[in-house]
Design a protein that fits this description.
Calcium-transporting ATPase, cytoplasmic domain N, 1239 residues, nine-stranded mixed beta sheet, Calcium-transporting ATPase, cytoplasmic transduction domain A, nine-stranded antiparallel beta sheet
Length: 1239
């Protein structure tokens, strides 16, 4: 009977249900638990795709703790983790599949297959070798990266952990853990799986964890075990634990978890506070005991380990169009040749031997077949027109640009935090050079996110005498001068407050001392801050989820209400001057309930019990939500506080309102029952908790408000001004109030008094009246109609300014409520048109989703290249919605950085990232791609001209190996050199003349007109190469008197092509360094070395006998040297003349700057500044010393700028620290000892 019931239990466990048979465990559960199980059983089955895991019906799982046999039939995932893309069996097929997803690789595969057929005029080696080289390099790169991931997986899976076996702890590996196991984790160790927290060595069953691996936050988080499991701390006691967990299926939500623990006939609700996630570490706790819930790839961190959405640059999409144009050119050439072949073929050409029995390709009786077969023949012959090595070269260039130039740029290195710039992807380098719209968060991005308690309003009375940076900037704009008085402010981290009326107990003499006490207690009690260190005001440190929280608790401490200890149920506060002046007492407050803050509620509350039994709800939050929940008798203080909030907002301060409510025991007990039920719910728990919170967070009494200053980051106004001059439009998307956002915009130079401002706000009389009536449908209708009218009015006004003679610039300010309706499909076109006509746009009170929607609106609607920059988790969606996402490694964790494409430490570094690295990358890659197009078209056209003299038969002009190695060896290095080192103007001039950046916005260097010019000269040069060499050699002969044959002429032509296309790159370069010379002349030398060896050896296994001894015969004639001298000169003469005319009469902007500064020394300005003012900071002095180091003198085409420097080598000789760079090794090895000189 027992065996049967066990089988029933196991079967039901597989379905996630429960068994009601006499032998089942859950029979012991109470009626309440049966209700929960019944609720679970009636849930609809569904399939949800989350990350890479697809949980199957039903929507919950049942786990038997400390019972592997019961869990085994369910087939839970193992705890072994694999982050590799391939294994031994899948590497080759999957790797090749990834490579052949590229159109160019697939094209060359088709060409390689065609070349093995009898109709191919070239040996298969011609196409197979370059394709194999490209695939080999790519696969080696993939294998190397995957091998590193494999090694990391082995290390992680083998990490030791203590698991309960019988009645003792035994050490095993992470990968051997199973769902339901009981484990013990020691201090500073990482959690091996997602665990249910059961017991801790700390009192009251709490532990502290660090979640830096998940979100980058180093602030400690507190977790609390269910009270019923606190005793299961030892191995003997833990072995008795036979609980049953009913919880949600695996998902990728890091901050939510619902479930119930059935133990000892009781149902205990589970929340994220009892969940310990894999990857987090245990801190300040000797050890904890937990039960494994999710393992391996079903853990939340692994389900979040998806790559950032793959972004493809606009440049690459345009490159695809160029490849299609080459396909069209190839097809046209093949059609011409095929038709020509069908027309030309005729038996009258008796010398061709076209007798009765001739192969189909040359049978005059079936000209259609001849045309078709010749078409395929010519496709293989002209296949070199598509550059197979283009993608590999571009990837290599982009990777080195990121690894060596962006990541190691000292100008983007933040000394205070020792944070360099980080390129997290190399796919978007050139996109940085074409950005037209920047979407920025405010807090932590434009500002420092170092919050300081600055002012407050208590009971309708303002306190705080300081002057903010925004107020100073506003006064300066209005021509006013503020005289700063000597400050007596108490200044510590998070607190910068100056007002003697309420400091040091002076608040007792104020008209409203009781309200002051409530204000200070609300600051000291309503928070989730964790104290660390000694329990003294001078040495204690606060671990807070946000800098605002820490600032408010620091303010309470300085006002005499010192929060110094927390347990899961109590908070200890050392209060001063409450009973009488100078008296200090420690008070323990019992925290009964905590209603947490979220983006929907926009408030946080705690219910606490005083030692005398008094029950109070303290609440703090945004003014809009607090004012809605005030009792009727608060109108006067509400009106006064609203005025104070507007003043604080105008000063650029962040505000919160504080309120409280006295609770009776009966009211609290009734509400608490509903709260417990909502907290135990498995479905929609968060929604039910919010609904229950609404029942008690009402009838509040307003205490006052706080004002916190978040100072601007260093260099933000100058950076924004520079980017604006570069043609970049900057939008600020923030959750702050409109007044705060506008004033920060003024301080940042985003808005000034000369601008015409269009403001669309929901704070209008019409909308307020609708809100007072309380009908949601009416509110929505009125608001939408108001937004529609405002948009139309603003758009008409903008058109008036644009079409008139006025040069006034426009700015738009819109709040989140209006934006919600403006993004409606019927209004978004008007919003987009208005926004695009404005120089600056400020969106206030916006949600993370609205940030992403605005970004997508411009990206998709305007077809402009966008960049989003932010520092917090609420910016992730915006960062991922833009073409380029920038994360700031600030104080709000690393969520934004982990979702970004590039990471920087300060907003001001955008200047270097965009105007220097972005612009250079764009120009370099444009030159690389157009040059590839030019050289391949030139080479293929010479073969095309030869086709006309061979009766369109498909006879090859070049040897197979010439054709194979043209791209991969003889012209490969110079392109890399240009892609890495070409520089039109220096970094300083790029920032001095930001208008140069507009060339990238307008895509000046990758237009069809530019490509057409390169194509024209490819056409011209191919005619020179072919007809000059063939015509000149018609009557030429070698030393033995024999006339030149096909292979003599083709080898000479190929030599001219290799020399000319390499020299052409020097002509196109803006700056010429040693790497250019090495690339160009190294490639030419490689050709001669190859041909000397190749033509000196003959093997009977291929068609190489055609080239045997050819180069030696050619070099024995004067004709060869004369041709080699004249043909490149004539071929390049057209380019030379065009560039001269273009530079003189139609110069690009950068060419004008080159001429203006061709005699300048790049660092002269800095020397002159030094003469004027010698007061340099240590960082500036170090930077100046680096700038003074000698550099490599480079030669240029008509102007003088620095080539890439070798700072770190010279720095070591001058006693200045600078990071090592890869080329220093070569520099050190080759440098001769000579006196150091400065220029």
């Amino acid at each position: 009977m027992n065996g049967g019931s066990d089988r029933v239990r196991i079967a039901m466990a597989r379905l996630g249900g429960d068994s009601s048979s006499p032998g089942s465990r859950t029979r012991r559960s109470s009626a309440g638990s049966i209700g929960s199980v019944s609720e679970l059983r009636h849930m609809p089955s569904r399939t949800v795709t989350l990350g890479r895991i697809q949980p199957q019906a039903p929507t919950h799982r049942t786990i038997y703790c400390n019972d592997r046999e019961a869990n085994l039939p369910v087939g839970y995932k193992s705890n072994s983790v694999s982050t590799t893309k391939y294994n031994v069996l899948t590497f080759l097929p999957k790797g090749l599949f990834e490579q052949f997803r590229r159109v160019a690789n697939l094209y060359f595969l088709m060409i390689s297959i065609l070349s093995t057929t009898p109709i191919s005029p070239v040996h298969p080696i011609t196409n197979v070798v370059p394709l194999s080289l490209v695939l080999l390099v790519s696969l080696i790169k993939e294998a190397f990266e995957d091998w590193k991931r494999f090694q990391n997986d082995i290390s992680i899976n083998a990490t030791p952990v203590e698991v309960l076996q019988g009645q003792s702890w035994e050490t095993t590996q992470w990968k051997r853990l199973q769902v339901g196991d009981i484990v013990r984790i020691k201090q500073d160790s990482y959690f091996p799986a997602d665990l249910l927290f059961l017991a801790s060595t700390n009192p009251d069953g709490v532990c502290y964890i660090e979640t830096a691996n998940l979100d980058g936050e180093t602030n400690l988080k507190i977790r609390k075990a269910p009270e019923k499991t606190w005793d299961y701390l030892t191995a003997q006691k833990a072995s008795e634990f036979k609980g049953e967990i009913q919880c949600e299926q695996p998902n990728n939500s890091l901050y939510t978890f619902t479930g119930n623990l059935l133990v000892d006939k009781q149902t205990l609700p589970l929340s994220p506070n009892q969940l310990l996630l894999r990857g987090c570490s245990l801190r300040n706790t000797e050890y904890i005991v937990g039960a494994v819930i999710f393992t391996g790839h079903e853990t939340k961190v692994m389900m979040n380990s998806m790559n950032v959405p793959s972004k493809r640059s606009t440049f690459e999409r345009k490159l695809d169009k160029l490849i299609l144009a080459l396909f069209s050119t190839l097809f046209t050439m093949c059609v011409i040749g095929a038709i020509g072949s069908g027309i030309f073929i005729n038996r009258k050409y008796y010398y061709l031997g076209l007798k009765e029995k001739v192969e189909d390709q040359f049978n005059p009786d079936n000209r259609f077949v001849v045309t078709i077969l010749t078409m395929f023949t010519l496709i293989t012959l002209y296949s070199t027109i598509i550059p197979i090595s283009l993608y590999v070269s571009i990837e290599m260039i982009k990777f080195i640009q990121c690894a060596q130039f962006i990541n190691k740029d000292l100008h983007m290195y933040h000394t205070e935090t020792q944070t360099p710039a980080l390129a997290r992807t190399s796919n978007l380098n050139e996109e940085l050079g074409q950005v037209e719209y920047v979407f920025s968060d405010k807090t932590g991005t434009l500002t420092r996110n170092l919050m300081e308690f600055f002012k407050c309003s208590i009971g309708g009375q303002m306190y705080g005498t300081g002057i903010t940076e925004t107020e100073k900037g506003s006064a300066q704009r209005n021509g006013l001068r503020i005289e700063e008085k000597p400050s007596t402010a108490v200044h510590e981290k998070g607190f910068n407050f100056d007002d003697s009326r309420i400091m040091r107990g002076a608040w007792r003499n104020e008209p409203n001392p009781d309200i002051c006490v409530e204000f200070f207690r609300c600051l000291a009690l309503c928070h989730t801050v964790l104290p660390e260190g000694e329990e003294s005001p001078e040495k204690i440190t606060y671990q807070a989820a946000s800098p605002d929280e820490a600032a408010l608790v620091a303010a309470a401490k300085n006002f005499g209400f010192f929060f110094y200890r927390r347990t899961p149920t109590t908070v200890m506060v050392r209060e001063s001057h409450v009973e009488k002046m100078g008296q200090i007492q420690d008070v323990q407050y019992e925290i009964l309930n905590a209603l947490e803050f979220n983006s929907t509620r926009k408030r946080q509350s705690v219910v606490c019990r005083y030692p005398n039994g008094r029950l109070v709800l303290y609440c703090k939050g945004a003014d809009t939500v607090i004012f809605e929940r005030l009792s009727a008798g608060n109108q006067e203080i509400k009106s006064i506080t609203r005025d104070h909030l507007e003043q604080y907002g105008s000063a650029g301060l962040r505000t919160l309102c504080l309120a409280y409510r006295e609770l009776s025991s009966e009211l609290y007990e009734s509400w608490n029952e509903k709260f417990i039920q909502a907290k135990s719910a498995l479905r929609d728990r968060d929604k039910k908790l919010d609904e229950v919170a609404e029942l008690i967070e009402k009838e509040l009494t307003l205490i006052g408000c706080t004002a916190i200053e978040d100072k601007l980051q260093e260099g933000v106004p100058a950076c924004i001004e520079t980017l604006s001059r570069a043609g970049i439009k900057i939008w600020v998307l923030t959750g702050d109030k409109m007044e705060t956002a506008i004033n920060i915009a003024y301080a940042c130079n985003l808005i000034n008094n000369e601008m015409k401002q269009f403001i669309i706000s929901s704070e209008t009389d019409v909308i307020r009246e609708a809100e007072d009536r309380g009908d949601p449908v009416e509110i929505a209708r009125v608001t939408k109609e108001s937004v529609k009218v405002d948009l139309k009015r603003c758009l008409e006004g903008a058109q008036t300014y644009i079409h008139g003679a006025s040069t006034t610039k426009l700015a738009l300010v819109i709040d989140g409520k209006c934006l919600m309706y403006a993004l409606d499909p019927t209004l978004r076109v008007d919003l987009l048109n208005l926004s695009l006509n404005c120089k600056s746009v400020i969106c206030c009170r916006v949600s993370p989703l609205q940030k992403a929607q605005v970004t997508s609106l411009v990206r998709k609607g305007a077809k402009k290249i966008t960049l989003s920059i932010g520092d917090g988790a609420n910016d992730v969606s915006m960062i991922q919605a833009a073409h380029v996402g920038i994360g700031i490694s600030g104080l709000e964790g690393m969520q934004a950085v982990m979702a970004s494409d590039f990471a920087i430490a300060q907003f001001r570094f955008l200047t270097d990232l965009l105007l220097v690295h972005g612009r250079w990358s764009y120009m370099r890659l444009c030159k690389v791609v157009t040059y590839f197009f030019y050289k391949n078209l030139t080479f293929t056209l010479t073969q095309f001209w030869f086709t006309f003299q061979t009766g369109f038969s498909g006879q090859r002009f070049y040897d197979d190996w010439f054709q194979s190695l043209f791209n991969v060896i003889f012209t490969a290095l110079p392109v890399i050199a240009v892609g890495l080192f070409d520089k039109d103007v220096s970094a300083n001039l790029s920032k001095k003349y930001p208008q140069l950046y507009k060339e990238g916005i307008n895509n000046t260097f990758f237009r069809w007109r530019v490509i057409a010019i390169w194509a024209f000269f490819a056409f011209y040069q191919s005619l020179i190469f072919y007809y000059f060499t063939t015509s000149a050699s018609r009557y030429g002969h070698n030393s033995s008197g024999k006339v030149f044959g096909l292979w003599d002429v083709s080898t000479m032509t190929f030599t001219c092509i290799v020399v000319t296309v390499n020299l052409r790159l020097l002509l196109a370069s803006n700056s010429i360094t040693r790497w250019h010379y090495i690339g160009v002349f190294g490639s030419i030398l490689a050709w001669f070395v190859f041909i000397f060896i190749y033509s000196g050896v003959m093997t009977p296994l291929d068609r190489q006998e055609n080239i045997f001894f050819v180069i030696y015969v050619l070099m024995g004639t004067f004709f060869f040297y004369l041709t080699l001298l004249l043909v490149p000169v004539v071929a390049l003469l057209g380019d030379f003349l065009y560039q001269g005319v273009q530079r003189w009469f139609f110069p690009y902007d950068y060419q004008i700057i080159q001429e203006l500064h061709k005699d300048d020394i790049e660092q002269r300005t800095r020397f002159e500044l030094l003469e004027v003012n010698n007061n340099l900071t240590p960082e500036e002095a170090r930077s100046l010393e680096i700038s003074r180091l000698p550099r490599e003198k480079s030669k240029h085409t008509g102007f003088a700028f620095d080539s890439p420097g070798y700072e770190s080598f010279f720095a070591s000789q001058h006693g200045v620290f600078a990071p090592q760079r890869p080329w220093d090794v070569a520099r050190r090895a080759s440098m001769k000892q000579k006196p150091h000189s400065r220029r």
